[in-house]
Specification:
alpha/beta; 3-stranded mixed sheet; 10 strands
């Protein structure tokens, strides 16, 4: 068994367990929607390089990233990912930053929010010169937009993708991953949770 897999354990962090179980590499990880960097703190212990994407870093969040930014293997990108290179209004939740979303259908869940204009880029236009083995996408029903803007990157690197599987965009995600020849190997919760998608060719080789 992979030594990294042994150190993580099946019940501690299941997305990474699923990734390594299906012969995933440990070169570069992308944390899309990194929020306060909690996942990135785990990723830097597994992957050679971690790129985190978060569009609006305030003073409180800067403190959360302080230790990570001291690591050469960690890179913070202060913008969002989507299907185009543009500026968009992010519906910023005032009581929980992690619920903020570009998707108008999420507004009823926010209670109090304000729109903040942020920069959005396509992942395909981001200069990452290392092998991308794992992508986590948690962007509150904006996941399909991120994937559409990353089709070339996904096609080239064939990473494992941990993706929030919100019912608002679930059907769209199923179509996108089918077109990419990916299979869903695990879903955390029935209504709202994360799912793990693995390239079909890696599943066949297990």
């Amino acid at each position: 068994m992979n030594s990294v897999l042994e150190s993580i354990g099946a019940n501690i962090f299941w997305p990474l367990y699923a990734h390594l179980k299906h012969n995933g590499g440990t070169n570069t990880c992308l944390d899309v929607g990194s929020n306060r960097g909690i996942h990135s703190q785990i990723y830097v212990g597994v992957f050679d390089t971690v790129h985190a994407f978060e569009p609006s870093i305030d003073n409180r969040m800067e403190e959360k990233y302080r230790k990570l930014l001291q690591l050469e293997k960690f890179v913070l990108h202060n913008y969002a990912l989507g299907e185009g290179n543009e500026k968009l209004n992010l519906h910023t939740c005032l009581h929980d930053w992690g619920l903020s979303s570009f998707n108008d259908d999420k507004i009823p869940q926010l209670k109090e929010y304000k729109d903040v204009e942020v920069q959005v880029k396509r992942l395909d236009d981001v200069d990452i010169n290392t092998k991308i083995d794992f992508i986590k996408i948690d962007v509150e029903a904006w996941e399909p937009k991120v994937i559409v803007g990353a089709l070339e990157t996904i096609g080239k690197h064939r990473p494992t993708i941990q993706c929030e599987y919100d019912v608002l965009v679930r059907d769209t995600l199923r179509v996108l991953f089918k077109e990419l020849n990916y299979s869903r190997v695990y879903t955390q919760k029935e209504q709202k949770g994360d799912a793990i998608f693995i390239p079909q060719e890696r599943i066949n080789n297990v």
